[in-house]
User: What shape does this take?
Amino acid sequence: MRAMKNIVILISGRGSNMQAIVHAARAGGWPARIAAVISNRPDAAGLAFAQAQGIPTAVVANREFPNRECFDAALQREIDRFAPDLVVLAGFMRILTEPFVAHYAGRMLNIHPSLLPSFPGLATHRQALAAGVRVHGATVHFVTADLDHGPIVAQAAVAVEAGDTESSLAERVLAQEHIIYPEAVRCFVEDRLAIDNGLVRVAPPVQA
Ligand code: GAR
Assistant: This one.
């Protein structure tokens, strides 16, 4: 029997990726539990969903801290109360300090709405439309000190259609995010991900 893993999910807003992971974890019989959902914003809409699911929630409001270092230290203390095996950034819109990233090295995932290494940063769908790319998408990656970079776990591509707007493109990419993020988290909790020289190897599922 594999030990149950604790997952802590960080959100800043809507939390639709968090919801997709919560649903998949429940449905899929993962060897993991969602130990907590933590937000840097007290008004994050996703908190209500987590509470309704009976998942412990917490807010560490970045506005209440004088600088990034103090905020990240407080956030780390709060996360570590839940003894996480994995920290999942799900629309967590913060630049993280190096000590924080180092503390969770190899056990923190992020999803970014572009095919990295294209279009790091904000407004990725606008960037994709401005660049005229024919293919856009989303990436799940391990978090490193390099913003929106790090070993790639999963990607999904969508075709850019003539007449696409930022919001139509965002909607199609988000639908893919909701597929690849739960799957990537599942691979992690099943111990199927290995980082080898900066590249992620994904082992096949073990047959029951
Ligand atoms: C998602 O599209 C996610 O990829 C993006 O924010 C959105 C959050 O939506 N993340 C980033 O841009 C991180 N750089 P959600 O709160 O509904 O999951």
User: Anything to note?
Assistant: The radius of gyration is 17 Å.
